[in-house]
Amino acid sequence: MQHLSHITITDTIYHYLKNEILNLQIEPGERLSEAALARQFNCSRIPVREAVQRLVSEGALEVRPQRGGFVTPIDLEQMERVRYIREVLETRIILDDFDKNLLEPIIPILRSMVRRQAELMELGSYPQAFLSDNEFHMLFYSIDHKDFVYEYAGMMDINYYRGRLITMRYEKRNSFVSQHSAIVDAIEARDRSALRVLLHRHYNNVAEVIESTEILTARGLPYFK
């Protein structure tokens, strides 16, 4: 019974920390206090260290000698690798759906999602807008039973995930929302060439926003590497 309790505490701390890191509640470069986490979860430091080691193995944390655990900066090269894989896979899926005439029936659903995203961005509800963004893209995977491809697209990669969320905070004029709207317009107009161009632009949005704003220099913490 004690062993099960120990595993549960470790898992709880792990999931808590991972969620906080993914959603930037604990920021890149920020130091973790094992003592504070042990107090927070009313446990010894052992399950905290085990949770930290799991996150180290996933690239979310790094342990520095004599200093403790730190949230890893966002690796721009890894982010670009994931972006490329995602563009290749998702563009193929969406264009295949387009060629099979599977997209027109879901246009009202897509329009509704875009409106919801605009509302959330106006409210500054970035985590909710982020989830709505994911739902928008997942719909294309699911319509022709290509959900299994999602796990290969790297959407949950610690670097790409955080990069996308940061982009939402900094992009001008809610560009991801307007890009979604333009994608739906191209689907409705049955314009395959425009759709391909818009998809390419959309998948490059994260890198373009990061490079064109003050994100790289605005923070005292090492956000990127």
Please tell me about this protein's structure.
The chain has a two-stranded antiparallel ribbon. The chain has two domains: 2-71, Arc Repressor Mutant, subunit A (Orthogonal Bundle); 76-218, Four Helix Bundle (Hemerythrin (Met), subunit A) (Up-down Bundle), CATH 1.20.120. Strand 1 (61-64) and strand 2 (68-71) form a beta hairpin. It has eleven helices and two strands. The chain has helices spanning 2-22, 34-40, 45-57, 76-99, 107-123, 126-142, 158-170, 175-188, 192-203, 205-212, 215-218; strands at 61-64, 68-71. By secondary structure, it is mainly alpha-helical. The model has no long low-confidence stretch (mean pLDDT 89).
Beta-sheet strand percentage? under 5%
Say what the CATH topology of the largest domain is: Four Helix Bundle (Hemerythrin (Met), subunit A)
CATH architecture of the largest domain: Up-down Bundle
- How many distinct folded domains? 2
Overall pLDDT: 89
Number of helices: 11
Low-confidence stretches: none
Distance between the termini: 44 Å
Order of helices and strands: HHHEEHHHHHHHH
What's the helical proportion of residues? 55-70%
Morphology? elongated
